[in-house]
Structures are given as structure tokens and as C-alpha cells.
């Protein structure tokens, strides 16, 4: 059993949003086509409270892309994005959500970021996704969405560590690319772990 995991294809990560991934909306028609070929499709949404401590605005004197230590972990500071109930947190309007069997919301704890659709960045709070997939007999996940070098990568990495085989379809993803070289080093780390990176769809 295979599952397609559609990661964070939300307005704020697309052109016109608060944290736009370059060319982010280009993944939408590709994902719409892919979803027709999988027996199970699950999507994730970043779903932050306004006081989330990954937001630079909640750290006076700090700027977007500053890196701080938060509860012992390195944390990139982002613009306010995907705030619960906001337009920016909604899925891109052209994304076909009808195939989604489950929508996982993450990043709800104001003190810890959650790039992965499986669990938070401290790896101590699960979204329940792994259990849901196991219950349905899923053994392999294919990850697509935004952004390649952050939430897509973290989701594939966690999938592998939680016992699933994992692949990323790169044409159905786009990267932030910040800081320079981050995408390349992230992809190499994923290859070394055993995540399959696929260049065609």
C-alpha cells in the first residue's frame, strides 16, 4: 500500500503569500494529476497560533531568517505565516482537495516548530499520521509539496525513521533555497539516509 503525502501547499507558501516559495504554485497541477494514481492521499497544513515563537515578530529586535536557540533547539525565525484560520493557511485555491482522506495540521504548539507532517521538530509530539498509515497497511510514502528543503525533507526523513520507505518526487516540490546551499546539502543528507529522490513524474 502506497500513500501520497501532500505537504503544505498553502497560500502563504505560494506567490502572494507571506512566505512564498519561488515558483511554489507550479506544483499544484502536478499534484492534482498525481493524486489520481494513489490509493491513499493525505495532506498537511501548517497551522500556527499568532504567538508562535518561530515568528520573528514575536522576538523584538530580531529579523526574519535570524537563527535563535529556542528551548535548546536551533530555530530559524520566519515571517508570520499560516496563522490558524487565515487566508494564508488555506490550501491553494487550485489544489484539488477532494482526494484527501486525511488532513494533518501541524505547528500548533507555540513553543516548537513542526516541519514534518509526522511530528514536531523536537520529535516528542506526534500528529498521529504514522499510526493512521500503519492502520491502513501503508508501507511506502511518496512526498510532494512545499518546501523541498524544509517541510518536505523533514516529512520524508521522519517517514524513513518511523519504518516507512520514502521517496520524494522532485518535480512536484519547490525549495526555499535559504541559506545558500541549503537545498543541495539537504538533498544529499536525504540520499545518504536512503530516501529515494525521483527526478521525473
Provide a quick synopsis of the model.
By secondary structure, this protein is of the alpha/beta class. It contains four helices and eight strands.
Architecture overview:
This protein has helices spanning about 25-35, 130-135, 150-160, 180-195, and strands at about 1-5, 40-45, 65-70, 75, 100-105, 140-145, 165-175, 195-200. The chain is globular. The chain has a single domain (about 1-50, about 80-200), classed as Rossmann fold (3-Layer(aba) Sandwich), CATH 3.40.50.850. β7, α4 (about 180-195) and β8 (about 195-200) form a beta-alpha-beta unit. The longest helix is centred in the last third of the chain and has 14 residues, at about 150-160. It starts with a strand and ends with a strand. With about 200 residues, it is of the alpha/beta class.
Topology:
Elements: E1 2-7, H1 27-34, E2 41-46, E3 67-70, E4 73-76, E5 100-106, H2 129-135, E6 140-146, H3 148-161, E7 165-174, H4 182-193, E8 196-198
Parallel strand pairs: 1-2, 1-6, 2-5, 6-7, 7-8
Antiparallel strand pairs: 3-4
CATH architecture: 3-Layer(aba) Sandwich
Question: What can be said about the biggest beta sheet?
Answer: 6 strands, parallel
Structural class: alpha/beta
Secondary structure: helix percent: 10-25%
How many whole angstroms does the radius of gyration measure? 16 Å
Indicate the mean pLDDT.
96
Extract low-pLDDT stretches: none
Strand line-up of the largest beta sheet: 5-2-1-6-7-8
Number of domains: 1
Q: Count of DSSP helices?
A: 4
CATH H level, superfamily name: Isochorismatase-like
Report how far the terminal alpha carbons are from each other: 19 Å
The name CATH uses for the topology is Rossmann fold
**Beta strands, count:** 8
Q: What general form does the structure show? A: globular
Order of helices and strands: EHEEEEHEHEHE
* CATH classification class: Alpha Beta
β-strand percent reads 15-25%
